[in-house]
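Example (one chain per record):
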Amino acid sequence: MPLFDHFALIARFYDRIFTRVNLEQIHEQLAMPANRLLDVGGGTGRVSGRLTGAQTVIVIDPSTAMLRAAGAKNGLQRASAHAERLPFPDNSIDRVLVVDAFHHFCDQEPAAGELLRVLAPGGRLVIEEPNIELWPVKLLALGERLALMGSRFYRPDAIRRMLEMHGGQVTVHTDDSINMWIIAEKPATA
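Predicted structure:
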């Protein structure tokens, strides 16, 4: 757990600092449309607030400052919670999105279980995460460690295993950027 809420300092400026997002790719990977989209670690809603095709969009984040910024975006529901304890019933969310946040979760393995627990049968989880196997991300991880952010970056195969342990059918994709994409589907029948 970080000693300091770094995100409270940058919440007002976050959307202007982090502008790059491939909405078309995220939309495609989520296999939209969907009834309920849950953006875990979604902060200001900078991604989910711009996606189309979901009847209900809920942003979950432990930072109240980030959620306050998300409140300025029309149509977003917000809740303060940690990924390890999501305030939703089992099988209640059609799509779950985690963009550049998995490494900030306090305990990734239980969080992976929670992400899949709330996912409805036939639902899809998409995690976009910096690929720690690449040198630029190793430098980023070092910077976050020096800033005492409490981040823990995992290799793609480690995240895949965490999700498979909880019943997800997982594929991992890398692209020409520094990101990896982990897509987990919850089987339609148990």
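Caption: Residues 37 and 95 are 5 Å apart (CA to CA).
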